[in-house]
Design a protein that fits this description.
Number of strands: 2
Structural class: mainly alpha
Strand content: 5-15%
CATH superfamily: Winged helix-like DNA-binding domain superfamily/Winged helix DNA-binding domain
InterPro entries: Bact_HTH_transcr_reg, Tscrpt_reg_HTH_GntR, WH-like_DNA-bd_sf, WH_DNA-bd_sf
Strand order of the largest sheet: 1-2
Order of helices and strands: HHHEEH
GO molecular function, one term: DNA binding
Shape: globular
CATH architecture: Orthogonal Bundle
Protein name: HTH gntR-type domain-containing protein
Number of helices: 4
Helix content: 40-55%
Keywords: DNA-binding, Transcription, Transcription regulation
Distance between the termini: 50 Å
């Protein structure tokens, strides 16, 4: 019988999938992410779970939040040079 994959909290899966979309070029620097509500609906979870994933990506510099505007993919090219 194959081993069960380790349990992954949903916030971690959301974080990983957003990072994968950025790495694949699906989400590009400056692109606006869907709203917390839209992501919560997509993942069939609460806004709290989505916010945890997004806040960790903001802290890591992958995303940037703009109060009252939304969350965007950060332009990391400036950080590399």
């Amino acid at each position: 019988m194959p081993a069960m994959p380790p349990y992954e909290p949903l916030w971690r899966r959301i974080r990983r999938e957003i990072q994968a979309k950025i790495a694949a070029g699906i989400l590009k620097p400056g692109d606006k992410l869907p709203t917390t509500r839209e992501l919560a609906d997509e993942y069939e979870t609460s806004g709290v779970t989505v916010r945890k994933a997004v806040e960790l990506l903001i802290e890591a510099g992958v995303l940037e939040g703009r109060q009252g505007v939304g969350v965007f993919v950060a332009d990391t090219s400036e950080q590399d040079s």
